[in-house]
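Module 6 notes. Inverse folding takes a fixed backbone as the condition and produces residue identities as the prediction. Think of it as a translation problem where the source language is geometry and the target language is the twenty amino acids. Below is one complete input and output pair. Work through it position by position during the lab.
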């Protein structure tokens, strides 16, 4: 499959460990692709939940996926500052249909003031027991929480102001030329 190009729109599909579709985001504009990473942006995009419920995102969000890390990052650009929602998840794959990954329940939320919260630990434990997450998967996910927290604490990659400025400005340029 040819990698999507800058300005192309892709869908994003989140699955659970058992292979069931969890959530779909309809339109994300690709801002950059490389061998390992995808950076994109969506704004007021349609989201469909596994139970069929639909809703629309409220603000622009930059997305970051990397094939070597077991997390992805959503930077929500709001009036009061940037909030981050980080999913502990498998590295992504891309096919003709969508960018796809397995959501492993654990999430890290970062507020504009820098406060961090680890979310959905109970959901992770329940699904781990239900779907028999391997010890290796558990080890990888816990190691990636540490990498993610290091990135957050040190303003690396998507957690830097420069990253947000560069990629959100690029999104605005591309969106206004359509």
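Target side of the pair, the amino acids:
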């Amino acid at each position: 499959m040819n990698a999507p190009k800058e300005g192309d729109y892709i869908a994003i599909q989140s699955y659970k460990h058992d292979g069931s579709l969890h959530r779909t985001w309809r339109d994300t504009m690709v801002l950059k692709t490389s061998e390992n990473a995808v950076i994109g942006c969506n704004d007021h995009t349609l989201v469909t939940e596994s139970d069929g419920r639909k809703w629309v995102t409220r603000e622009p969000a930059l997305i970051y996926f990397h094939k070597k890390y077991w997390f992805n990052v959503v930077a929500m650009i709001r009036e009061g500052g940037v909030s981050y929602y980080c999913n502990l998840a498998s590295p992504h794959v891309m096919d003709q249909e969508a960018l796809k990954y397995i959501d492993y329940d654990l999430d890290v939320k970062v507020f504009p003031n820098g406060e961090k919260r680890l979310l959905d630990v109970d959901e992770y434990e329940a699904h781990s027991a239900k779907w028999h997450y391997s010890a290796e998967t558990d080890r990888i996910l816990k190691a990636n929480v540490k990498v993610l927290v290091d990135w957050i604490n040190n303003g690396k990659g998507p957690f830097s102001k420069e990253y947000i400025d560069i990629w959100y400005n690029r999104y605005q340029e591309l969106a206004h030329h359509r």
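Reference fact for the lab report: The radius of gyration is 16 Å.
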